[in-house]
Each structure stands twice: as C-alpha cells, then as structure tokens.
Amino acid sequence: xxxxxxxxxxxxxxxxxxxxxxxxxxxxxxxxxxxxxxxxxxxxxxxxxxxxxxxxxxxxxxxxxxxxxxxxxxxxxxxxxxxxxxxxxxxxxxxxxxxxxxxxxxxxxxxxxxxxxxxxxxxxxxxxxxxxxxxxxxxxxxxxxxxxxxxxxxxxxxxxxxxxxxxxxxxxxxxxxxxxxxxxxxxxxxxxxxxxxxxxxxxxxxxxxxxxxxxxxxxxxxxxxxxxxxxxxxxxxxxxxxxxxxxxxxxxxxxxxxxxxxxxxxxxxxxxxxxxxxxxxxxxxxxxxxxxxxxxxxxxxxxxxxxxxxxxxxxxxxxxxxxxxxxxxxxxxxxxxxxxxxxxxxxxxxxxxxxxxxxxxxxxxxxxxxxxxxxxxxxxxxxxxxxxxxxxxxxxxxxxxxxxxxxxxxxxxxxxxxxxxxxxxxxxxxxxxxxxxxxxxxxxxxxxxxxxxxxxxxxxxxxxxxxxxxxxxxxxxxxxxxx
Length: 483
Hints:
Radius of gyration: 28 Å
Oligomer: single chain
Low-confidence stretches: 1-7
Distance between the termini: 88 Å
C-alpha cells in the first residue's frame, strides 16, 4: 500500500529481521515448517536453488507464525511511536516474505507502507537500496537497520539509525558520517549461549549415581571415574536436547510468563546459533560416552531418541507426556547402572517410575495453574485443558503414594536384610517420602512450584531437609546405630 508522504519529514524506513524484531523470519519459518513436516528438509536445497526469495515464499506458505508473540525490539518500537506521533511516514522494508511483513505491519498498526520480498526478488542489500532509491530518491529517506547487509542501504539514505548492530557494523556505519541515532544491542553473546545450555538442569543427571548408592558400591575409584564421564556425557546430550526443544517450542515458550525469557524465545540468542550448537553438543556427548562403555552409550542413545520423540509430538498427548517424562528420569538411573556394569533392581525401577510420574504430573499441574490465572482454557502446545487440573492432581498424588508403597514393600524384602545392618531404621524413609510428595503437591496447589520440580526441590528448604533426613536414615540403616 502507498500513502501520501509527509513533506515536512523524510520517511523513516525500518528493517524487520534483527532490527524491529530480535529474530529472523527465515529462521523462524524454517524451524516451524521442518517441525511440522521433517521431510521438508529435503526440499530446502531445491527451493534455495530457485533463489532465496522463492525459499522464503515456500516456507512462509507452510509455517504459521504468531507475529504478536515475536520478540519485538521494544526500545525501537517506542521510538517509532514517537516518530509516528510527529507525523512521520514509517515504511517497513524487509527481505522477509511479504506475507509475513504484512502480518507484522497489521499487528503493529504503525507503518504507512510495506516493501518486502515477493517470491521472485529478494529485497536485501543492494536490491533493497535500489528499490528504496527508486521509491524515494537518493538520500530521500532515513533507514533503521542492523547488519552488514544494510551498509548499501545506509549509503543510499540521508541518515542512519543503527539498531542492535554488532560493533563492526556500527563502526562502518559511523564511518559514513550519517548516523543519526544508535540503539545498542541488548543481551546476547556468551551469557545467552551459556544460559541456553540450562546447566542448572544438569542436577537431574545426578540420578546416574543412584545405582552406586543403592548397591552400596562406593569404594571403587574406577566406578567413580566412569560415573564422572557418564555425568558429563549425559549433561552434554541433555543440553543438546534442551536447545532443540527450545527451537521447536518457540511459540509455547513465548506464551509462558517465565519461559518467554529463554534465549531463543526472547531473541537474545539467534535460532541459527541453536541450530549450530545442538549437533556439536550431541557429538561431544557421544565422544565422551564412548569412553564409558558400549552399554552406557546404548542407553544414552535411547534417552536421546525418546527425548526427540517427546519434543516432536509426545508432549502434546495427555498422560503420555507425563509417562514419557517419568521414563526419561528413570533412563538416567538405568544408564548409570550400565556405566558401572550393575544390574537394575526391580524395586528401584518401580520406585523410580512412580515417583517421577508424580513429579511429571506436578510439572504439568503447575503449568495448568499458570494458565488458569491468565484466564486461558488450554495450555499452548499441550493436550491439557485447564479444567483437567483436578484430574492431573489426583493422578499425581496417586503416583506419589504408589512410590511410597513400593518403598514399603521393598523394605520387607530379603535385599534389605542383606544390605543394611539395622533394616528396621530404614522404615523411617517411608514417612519422609510421604511428607515430601505431599509437600510438593501443596506448593504446586498454591502456585509456588517452579517449571521443573527437581530444580525447585534443590532450592526449597523443606525439600532439602527431607532429603537430608532421608539420607541420614539410609546411612544409619547401612552402618548401624552410632552408639
């Protein structure tokens, strides 16, 4: 659309990718299209061979983007609103496909005109500069951009707005002597990359050590060395999966009050970085895992495949999602046993499945509570309705009590009398476990639960106290009374 230009002010032309939004629409649509139909990966080279504009048009046709949830540069938006109030003509000019650019412009209601790639011509760099000169004349517009591709456009403009640009690009823009305004880059860099690894989630991988403690096999230096390598391998694999999951789950994360701050959802780290980081971490994980044992590497592969299945679809299936999460927790224990050549106990497996199923339901229940407070009827990207919250709570509590029952039955088995000097003391673990299960559900019911129950537990005083008492009971049962 074209409108009459304000003659008192030069039009301000604004780039979209990396400037108006802290992401790139080509990357956004690629992730969504491949997520919905993985075989589309095979089509990308053929589409690209017909030109980048054609590739963008094909992806835009196959990927739905919630433009209202995109990570907009709020500082720039505030400045644009002031310019608009002054009566200045604003033009959105982008290399992204026109369908997407029109959606962004319609959502914001700020722009008088939209210029974008049309499936034939890719409106970037020299092409964008030529189109703007043809439309407004040499030096007949100001331009807000962020990348080296915008250098040609700034050279054709009267004044430059440098927005969220790398320092090398900003220096080149300054050298032209026409920078009118600079809006520096916020966040990103190494800090965002480290945050994307979610290293705090590596605490879950301490479950690898459970078989060693359960078997009372604590004195072997070789076992501890193998477990240390297994921990590193599992952590690298988990981070690879977290990054892939964050890329797949962008829309759901942006709809969540806390997850929207994650690096990829917020735009502090580019999708392209994530696409590069995930396979590198996975390869490093496999290399470290090879140093442990073939059996461990096999279980690591199972964990990775199950996690991929969860990210690609299982997390959208009610109940199946929580069963899968419980399986993923339990697989850590199984992999830990494989790392040191231990056979898995039936009791430990049964206890793990029920306990972690309860925690998985805690996680889902906490998400439902958040959506209830926001007045939503359904959790984005999940199969649950907010009316399912009481049912989820009931299933979770039942699973927790089943874990306590398995523990109680185990305490009456021959294995206990063989492993513990004072087995009667071990019964104290049952009420401690019951307290903790109920405590976690009370916190979830009050809306005080973290997105991940285990992360919550390591920060919660009552949970730490319960863990300390549980460990003390097991210790006394193992070595006997100290008097």
